[in-house]
Design goal:
This is Cytochrome P450. By secondary structure, this protein is mostly helical. It has helices spanning 2-44, 60-72, 82-85, 87-96, 115-124, 136-142, 151-161, 167-192, 201-218, 222-244, 257-286, 296-306, 312-343, 345-359, 368-373, 375-387, 419-423, 426-429, 460-464, 468-474, 479-493; strands at 100-104, 107-111, 129-131, 394-398, 402-404, 407-409, 414-417. It binds protoporphyrin IX containing FE and 2-acetamido-2-deoxy-beta-D-glucopyranose (3 copies).
Length: 494
Amino acid sequence: MMMMEDKLLNWLKLVFISLMVLLFVSKIAVLLWWRPRKIEDHFSKQGIRGPPYHFFIGNVKEIVSLMLKASSQPMPFSHNILPRVLAFYHHWRKIYGATFLIWFGPTVRLAVSDPDLIREVFTSKFEFYEKNEAHPLIRQLEGDGLLSLKGEKWAHHRKILTPTFHMENLKLLVPVVAKSVTDMLDKWVTMSESGNVEIEVSEWFQILSEDVITRTAFGSSYEDGKAIFRLQARQMDLAAQAFQTVQIPGYRFIPTKRNIKSWKLDKDIKKSLMKLIGKRKENIGNVLPEKGPKDLLGLMIQASDSSPNITDYDIVEECKSFFFAGKQTTSNLLTWTTVLLAMHPQWQVLARDEVLRVCGARDNIPTKDDVVKLKTLNMIVNESLRLYPPIIATIRRAKTDAELGGYKIPSGTEILIPILAVHHDQAIWGSDANEFNPARFSEDQEFKPYDDDDDKLLSDDEEENVTQDVYEERRPNHEMDKERDSIATHLMLR
Ligand code: HEM
Ligand SMILES: *[C@@H]1O[C@H](CO)[C@@H](O)[C@H](O)[C@H]1NC(C)=O
Ligand SMILES: *[C@@H]1O[C@H](CO)[C@@H](O)[C@H](O)[C@H]1NC(C)=O
Ligand SMILES: *[C@@H]1O[C@H](CO)[C@@H](O)[C@H](O)[C@H]1NC(C)=O
């Protein structure tokens, strides 16, 4: 009798285990095989196609190989950077048109570059879309702040922090920014006293934007904040290194040398921020409210006083988010604008004339009223943001079944918005889309500051023909390429 029962029990166990295995296998099959087929089918019926899905890896193999191929080739001397920076997008768009499907593993993304559809995603139908989940490494860097928050928590934080971006507050920041800039320029002048010097502007601009963000984020706690952001900058370097190696799932939990360093940094950052928050909280009681610009830290601490759901953790994460969002974006904009002005000296002359006209003598620091009068400079900055947008793409995820320009979008579909591609689209900007022409932003349609014959860059056809020799001769420095490529890596992992 005992024996029989044991046997039965063993048999039942076996059946149970087999069932579990079967369930697991079929779940995998549904997720990695059946569902992607169904989605491909759903879109193909609406006339949307794309490179075919491959089991588990989707199109990742092709994406990586297209990106590697593009970045291994010399970059011609031109602003036509889409084929290099978003090589996979450029390649498939030619085949499948402006709206097509790409598989980032088993995750489907619908690439959308029609401005009308993009407007729907961000404005008229925004309630159907939310941010997607960032790669864990990015997530750690950007923090649990505005950049990644969703729904109610996002709305709450956004309401608290919006005063930092009010015009009145930004105006108070003008002298703060001016101080950081003049300090930098003074150093350049000292450097150049000994003759010709080469200045790596991208490094200087990173220090500059870090400095300004530290002031906007920490205000009176600038010195303490600076030390914290130094740690965060090192954390960003470590993450950038991690991107360059092959990503094995779960790798970030293995105690490698780099990971141990990164964990320690994370702990130090948290500890210092908590200490700083404590210090500021003590001061709030006995110091009169500051007259200076409102800083992120002050606003968050103030809010935490009256709202129990703003915790110290939230404040720490919001600080990280600001740093991440503001530093590379701003320094990249400044760097590319400088490069563009160096490449197009005619515009340098126009910008310089305007600054001297508006601000007067060289020693006058621009006031808030001057800034709005710098029309030409504004056009140049806009053109720089168009050709070299610091954020080259973004993603939104359909929260529920949605409609987009008449297409039926199943819940969970991610919408890939290739900002860089929209900015270089000849259908939107005309045949000179890949040329630097700030005049396109002029209110005066006839604005033509110079004869642009000798400023012509290579046409797309000629470009594909540029040889290594020409490249080496015209561009001795490959740093620019590296920078573009690293931005592209960021997007891939977002
Ligand atoms: C040229 C400079 C900059 C560019 C081109 C830029 C671009 C962007 C873009 C495209 C987004 C939207 C991302 C998305 O939701 O998909 C964004 C969000 C954000 N940026 Fe910037 N940014 C710049 C500078 C800054 C600076 C200096 C700060 C802070 C000091 C900052 C803080 C933020 C924050 C907090 C968000 C999230 C907003 C929210 O979701 O409520 N950005 N930025
Ligand atoms: C946090 O508190 C505020 C007011 O105290 C409230 O409006 C908001 O809904 C709360 N947010 C969350 C996520 O609980
Ligand atoms: C630059 O772009 C911004 C944002 O689109 C716009 O508000 C501003 O008017 C533009 N400036 C010029 C000079 O076109
Ligand atoms: C590209 O190079 C090939 C071979 O040197 C030449 O025959 C062709 O005319 C060139 N095309 C352009 C657009 O310059």
